[in-house]
Amino acid sequence: MPNIEVVANIQDLVSNLQSAIAAQIMANIDIANNFQKIAEEIYSILTSGRLVKPKMNNRKTIAVSDNVATISGWDSLNIKWKQAIKENYGISLEQDESKVKEYYQNFITEFNRYGYQTKVWELDPKNDLGKHYRSHAEKQISVIQPDNSIGVSRGMCEEDCYPYFYALAQIRQQDIVIADSNGIWLFYSHGQVKFVYRL
After folding, report:
1. What is the distance, to the nearest Å, from the Cα of residue 103 to the centroid of all Cα atoms in its chain?
2. How far apart are CA 166 and CA 119, in angstroms?
3. Are 38 and 69 in contact (CB under 8 A)?
4. Could you say which of 23, 60, 92, 114 has the lowest number of CB atoms within 10 Å?
């Protein structure tokens, strides 16, 4: 897996590309940035309305793509959260780690080819190793609402989500843009990865 190429500005994300491809990626960056703002707003609604328990405040992440948002974790999606987000944004709030598990198992040979295996976390359920990392919001959105533009409410984890999206872009043969609170990631379908920090 290659290193992340950190670039100075958004234009450098698409340098040396054909103009039509560069224009499409720039459009996807705009969409992902908008989704990222919505992800932060959704998280703010959940925390300010005391819909997320205080102990979860620093642990939950929201990912947005098109008309769907996902919340990290499993077995913790409250119907009040779904209603609040539907009323405020017209967006369906979802949580289904099992879809990530199923997708990963269906494409395990391809993920292995690109050097990805779900990491195990010390607090994973003993009978379901890898569940913690599979439950990350950005992974859930990638299978619940597949798109090439994703917004995430906080910084994407580099230890597991980075290699997952590196592999996923190549498996799907699709450039994937992820805008998080730290910057913009561009996972190219040919295996290159670029990142630009937010100013």
Report:
1. 15
2. 15
3. yes
4. 23
User: pLDDT tens for residues 1-54?
Assistant: 668 999 999 999 998 899 999 999 999 999 999 999 999 999 988 887 666 665
- Burial class of residue 9 (count of CB atoms within 10 Å of its CB; 0-12, 13-18, 19+): exposed
The Cα–Cα gap between 93 and 60 comes to: 13
C-alpha to C-alpha distance for 138 and 154, rounded to whole angstroms: 10
Is 74:97 a contact under the CB 8 Å cutoff? yes
Helices (H), the chain: 10-13, 19-48, 79-89, 97-106, 108-113, 131-134, 137-144, 161-172
Q: What SS3 state is found at 196?
A: strand
Mean pLDDT of 158-168: 96
Q: In a 3-state reduction of DSSP, which class is residue 152?
A: strand
